[in-house]
Amino acid sequence: MNKFSIAAAAACLLAGPAFAESHAMAEPTGDAAAGEAVFRQCQTCHVVQDADGNTLAGRNAKTGPNLYGIAGRAAGTVEGFRYKDSIVAAGEAGLVWTEETFVAYSQDPQGFLRATLDDNRARSGMSFRLRNEEDAVNLWAYLYSLAPPEAATN
Length: 154
Fold this sequence. Notes:
By secondary structure, this protein is mainly alpha-helical. The protein is 47% helix and 5% strand.
């Protein structure tokens, strides 16, 4: 993770939920079609399933949390999923999934949590890392396209 990513993540964390609630979620900058291809790497652990039980992406995997409605959601808050303590603590401290936080996290989950929580013992339940920022940006665009923040709350 580069210094800019850590700084961006820290700024988002410090801004907290009030910032997320008072500003509309920015449209993604990536390519959703390219992100769909990237998601194939994620579907081993994750699914994107709406509230009606329709699987929009993935194969109904349950190792990782359902990624439906991730845009604008507090970290570590999918009901019924057992998260590691560090991601729950980050969410309780105000970490909200935005393009910047998602991109930084998906490239180095453990490093991101350690920097965000200022805790060298923080652990992530996700061991997989996306190799490059472009893939992470495109994946965010794809997940956002499946459930923009306003659609996910309906």
